[in-house]
């Protein structure tokens, strides 16, 4: 009989019925929200912790300290509960009541950072504090999802290989970006095993993973103010798109109303671009995206009309509106490695993160 952590991964894929027409490519969603703690982050969280246990960096009764206001710390909290580790989540004021409730349900401790960094977001101050706490806490371990290449390796070894085995006519795969784990890992596997498959990254306006001007945005789970180390080789990515908050929220609402698939806001961002690609594709071709987390996490926000109106967002959930928008979208870059890389190679050291390097032979 498997334990809870044994059922991470091997998620199903489903074909969408209604958002595309028969003369377009098929949309395929990989249901990462079927993971036990509810998101794609279960994979890297367990991959990193398992590696730390194996290499003696995390010992029985140890403490896991991580910067994450969302799915990654929820996944770590599940793992901590199952394996007997204390989990400390360093979060920011944008932590939703739902995510706080989930972290507390799993027994994690929460520390809130309230000082924004130079980009106006909290990523850097959160990472810095997590590193400081780690240095001060004997027996602690920092998974460091932003700088740890095992994050991408989890998706390289599992998510991407599963997706390639589960599809027969895959033409493109679309991933949103924050730490770059899913896009970096999937891109590497796809370009090694099925190089004809187009790899497309999606960021949200206001985030500067692919350059641009930083400003506040509402889409949770997506974005960073630099190109993450897990995307060190941007030449593996064929195209990147920028979507708006409106796009992401409208698409996740449309997805549940027209397909019965309840997923979060970042899934809407990916779906918008996957639809753009599918509408330009041919019948029988498949365009895949990840249903990244459970929609229940957004009942008080994306699925609450009053919240949407208060935040100036549409309450629309109509396939025609989504298709119109998808038809208008054009890539932000078709040569991201040359045109819009925003790497900050010294940042890990500046924030006090250990430098992780995986030798080529360790990727397999
Ligand atoms: C719901 C959701 N979607 C997308 C992402 C982005 O994935 P990655 O960090 O692998 O780039 C995250 C990351 O936290 C997430 O929680």
Automatic annotation (TrEMBL):
Domain of life, per lineage: Bacteria
Tryptophan synthase beta chain-like PALP domain location: 5-291
Key words, A-Z: Pyridoxal phosphate
InterPro entries: Cys_Synth/Cystath_Beta-Synth, TrpB-like_PALP, TrpB-like_PALP_sf
Metal-binding listed as a keyword: no
Keyword set includes Cell division: no
Pfam families: PALP (PF00291)
Cofactor needs: pyridoxal 5'-phosphate
GO biological process, one term: alpha-amino acid metabolic process
PANTHER family, per the entry: CYSTATHIONINE BETA-SYNTHASE
Protein name (database record): Cysteine synthase family protein
Organism of provenance: Actinomadura rubrisoli
